[in-house]
């Protein structure tokens, strides 16, 4: 396993509140995306960061590289959220500390906005356009 590539690529961290099984469901969903294959990992939460109450047990990390992985992640995540029957909140945190929080219950109103926000988080503000 080549960990050098993983360490040099920026990592996104995704957490899901209110549903302990949702993160595994999201991981399973994202594994079907060719562009994300081999970039996903479920890890123990660093605990206590971000001030979450109730303690998140795991975080999904995604090694982001070039090649449009951000667009794929944004579309796939928004599709997963719109198909959820449970009301969950997903937080995507970029390598620079910026984050986007999405409430699945409110998502239907602005799927394009979510996709745009996640792409900006992944690609950085200099890539907007």
Textual characterization of the structure:
The protein is 36% helix and 22% strand. With 129 residues, it is of the alpha+beta class. The protein has a 5-stranded antiparallel beta sheet with strand order 2-3-1-4-5. The N and C termini lie far apart (36 Å). The N terminus is likely disordered.
List strands and helices in order, with pairings.
Elements: H1 3-8, E1 11-17, H2 22-30, E2 40-44, E3 58-63, H3 69-82, E4 89-93, E5 99-103, H4 104-107, H5 111-123
Antiparallel strand pairs: 1-3, 1-4, 2-3, 4-5
Helix pairs in contact: 3-5
Give the helix tally.
Answer: 5
Q: What about the largest sheet?
A: 5 strands, antiparallel
Fraction of residues in helix = 25-40%
Order of helices and strands: HEHEEHEEHH
Radius of gyration computed on alpha carbons: 14 Å
Structural class of the helices, strands and pairings?
Answer: alpha+beta
If strands are numbered along the chain, what order do they take across the biggest sheet? 2-3-1-4-5
Approximately how much beta-strand content do the residues carry? 15-25%
